[in-house]
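Team,

Forwarding the record for the chain on the shared tracking sheet. I've put the sequence and predicted structure together so nobody has to dig through attachments.
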Amino acid sequence: MKNYSNAIIFGLAIIISSFFLGKAFTDRNKKDGEIEVTGLGTTDFSSDLIVWEGRFGSVNTDLRQAYLSLEQKKATINDYLTKKGIKTGEIIYSAVATNQKTKQLYNASGEYAGEEFVGYELSQSIEIKSKEVDKIEKVSREITELLNQGVEFYSQAPRYYYTKLADLKIEMISKATEDARLRAENISKYSGGDLSNLESAKMGIFQITGQNSGEDYSWGGTFNTSSRDKTASITMKLVYKVD
């Protein structure tokens, strides 16, 4: 009988020990009296700066004639843009790029037989940076009208920026911090504790995406320049003491 009782006591001891060891294992990473919360701050805004770029060029077997043709096209483009209301100071031209165009030659057997000089290809890029977003956006859509004047202008899609980004970021941090604090207060309220001192605060990645674009966030931060209307967001991770 004594041996039977000892066996029961020994078995209960193993069960109780296993329970406390298991709890200690699951709770090994928990910190007593702390709440960790993440808050989100977002806002929609519209870009106030547009950057639009394009390129034009000319080809001629005579380098001087190629350059003269390029200058004539440049004058036509200047005249077109200024008539559209774009200020001269907003138009920036790059240096002229020169390239010798050649074509590959093959003999009757289809074997490579060298190259033949075709002509000099000159090209020049143009950049327009302005706060008159509506105006530049409209011109970028109408630039194909230059074809009627004999100028092939290769237009790129405009890029959109916001000049008050630093102020916007501060606003987002405030919103995210407030959101995190409210979350922490609710957690402590319904868990029967009292929110105490802020132990730490860590800012997440600042993200800018196009409104309703479905863009994915990036671990390194997303900075959309293709959409005029954007959404900015940031997260704040706060750790509070709980009494």
